Amino acid sequence: MTKTLRHFINGQKVEGVSGRFGDVFNPATGAVTARIPLASASEAALAVEAAAKAFPAWRDTPPLQRARVMFRFRELLEGHLDELAGLVSSEHGKVLSDARGSVLRGLEVVEFACGAPHLLKGAFSENVGRDVDSHSVRQPLGVCAGITPFNFPAMVPMWMFPLAIVCGNSFVLKVSEKVPSTALRLAELLTEAGLPDGVMNVVNGDREAVDALLTHAQVNAVSFVGSTPVAEYIHRTASSRGKRVQALGGAKNHMVIMPDADLEQAADALMGAAYGSAGERCMAISVAVAVGDQVADALAERLQPRVANLRVGPATDPTAEMGPLVTREHLQKVSSYVDLGVQEGAELLLDGRHPSIAGNEGGFFLGGCLFDKVTRNMRIYREEIFGPVLVIVRTPDFETALKLVNDHEYGNGTAIFTRDGDTARSYAARVQAGMVGINVPIPVPMAFHSFGGWKRSLFGDVHVHGMEGIRFYTRLKTVTSRWPTGIRTGADFHMPVMK
Ligand code: NAD
Fold it and tell me: Among 91, 102, 152, 227, which residue has the most ligand 1 atoms within 8 Å of its CB, making it the best to mutate?
């Protein structure tokens, strides 16, 4: 019998009572592995109420004590790394080495969060006026909500809750209904690390649960990562209710390959960046911008055998380089983009549709697909496909390549491969994207820097993790005080100025 998952509210596993359920699949076999309860608005409200109740005591817990919970959580994450990576793979499909890497990137945010006592240190100015001192502190917001996508079941939630919690907030996470098990396990591990009940809650669900969080009066801030239309909706809905919002959206990441680049290195980099995690990464490179026909021809020649030899298989196969897509619907959507590219007149150099994976015939597999001679008007260029489909666009020179990238509606990440410092510097300075790689194909910032895109890849101003994360989950208070109180200054009716 298929297991039925639960919510995690106030330190307890709680059964769903809405009567609505979704199926969770193993994408490598196509089998249903669990039923997930889809919360009603009132169940989501229970999680918010538990978080609101836990907030005052947690806010008043000294930052060092809060950080110690994170230290213990970090140890538990390391101890359960294989288990967590296995959970990620079993519901998302990505190969185990990739899943392990994604858990580790989340763990690094926890390591950053361990520095909270230092990160939350305020500023003090003595004698801003005679006998007057000023200090600034950052205080937590209250209940924060996180809504996360399917493609990083561990890492993206860990971009959010470790920092929110260590800053003294309580948290309600609405994880993607396609990959719920990892986040539920993370919440259990937090409890084992000593986090008081109610500080971290996980509510499973779909739009109904999300809307309940966006409109609940006791939710003060919302972090979202997912597709652009939903990010825009989340930002509009929550900010119109006065909540602080950061909503990270979709992407179409370009890698510019200059004529002086090492083409072997560029081709290897493109393989990992375009086909790793079956292209289901918001930082995946999905457009190779070749500067000059010679570069394009040479690149296509190098990519073709590499894509043809990609080892596609289930996460349980240690030799597999690329797993299946997350659901049958997503497989159909990505395949239909390949059909569309052919209709639009692009040259399909490698067709990964209908791969045969012996023993896993029911899985949601798609082989690597490669298009050449793609132009800027084609939908396969303009739209996010989010699968193992790489397109080559040919441009005559650097300026045209830069303009192409800057004209695109998304601006998440981008990369340039070149040996020329002037070109690299000019690209980094002028490109309209939030994260830039120079001979680095996937420039995902480390936990102590911040992650976020530009243009329609991010709604709101503040990026996630690093100091931006600390700023997002706290608000500034500045206290001005005069001691001793015995000094008489008389009444002043003008703007206070330093005397
Ligand atoms: P999605 O937008 O479909 O879902 C994200 C979350 O929103 C899920 O929890 C889902 O339940 C919820 N949701 C979906 N539709 C909703 C609606 N109509 N109203 C309210 N909530 C809704 O995204 P996905 O398919 O899970 O993830 C893939 C997308 O996420 C891609 O577009 C990818 O680029 C993006 N992504 C972006 C980043 C980034 O950092 N910018 C990182 C990872 C993924």
Answer: 227
pLDDT of residue 496: 81
Q: Which of 114, 144, 167, 282 is catalytic?
A: 282
Q: How far apart are CA 194 and CA 116, in angstroms?
A: 17
Which residues does a 6 A CB cutoff place in the pocket of ligand 1? 147-152, 156, 174, 176-177, 206-207, 210, 225-227, 230, 233, 248-251, 282, 384, 386, 412, 453, 457
User: Do the Cβ atoms of 88 and 320 come closer than 8 Å?
Assistant: no
Q: Please, how many CA atoms are within 13 Å of residue 176, restricted to the half-sphere of its CB?
A: 25
- pLDDT of 416: 98
Q: What is the pLDDT of residue 309?
A: 96
Q: In a 10 Å sphere around its CB, with 0-12 CB exposed, 13-18 middle and 19+ buried, how is residue 421 labelled? A: exposed
pLDDT of 355 above 70: yes
Q: Which residues contact 153 (CB under 8 A, 6 or more apart)?
A: 87, 88, 91, 92, 175, 176, 179, 180, 181, 182, 183
Domain residue spans of the chain: 3-249+457-479, 253-438
Q: Which atom of ligand 1 is nearest to the CA of 330?
A: 25
Pick the CATH number of 3-249+457-479 from 3.40.605.10, 1.10.287.110, 3.40.50.2000, 3.90.550.10: 3.40.605.10
- Phi, psi of 198, deg, nearest 5: 90, -15
* Token code pair at residue 246: 């950061």
The phi and psi torsions of 360 (rounded to 5 degrees) equal -130, 45
CB neighbour burial string for 21-36, b if at least 16 within 10 angstroms, e if fewer: bbebbbbbbbeebbbb
Instruction: Please tell me the distance from the alpha carbon of residue 428 to that of residue 73, in angstroms, as a whole number.
Output: 37
* Section 409-438 average pLDDT: 98
144 is catalytic: no
Quick one: tokens of 346?
């692009």
Q: Which residues pair with 413 in a beta bridge?
A: 435
pTM of the model: 0.96
Q: pLDDT exceeding 70 applies to what percent of the chain?
A: 99
Confidence of residue 486 (pLDDT cuts 50, 70, 90): low
Question: Which architecture, in CATH terms, is 253-438?
Answer: 3-Layer(aba) Sandwich (3.40)
pLDDT range class, residue 168, cuts 50, 70, 90: very high
3-state secondary structure 113-144: HCCHHHHCCCEEEEEEECCEEEEEEEEECCEE
Residue 491: pLDDT band with limits 50, 70, 90: confident
Closest approach atom of ligand 1 to CA 175: 9
Q: How many CA atoms lie within 13 A of 244 on its CB side?
A: 18
Q: What is the Å distance from ligand 1's center to 176 Cα?
A: 8
Do β-strands 123-129 and 132-140 pair in parallel, antiparallel, or remain unpaired?
antiparallel
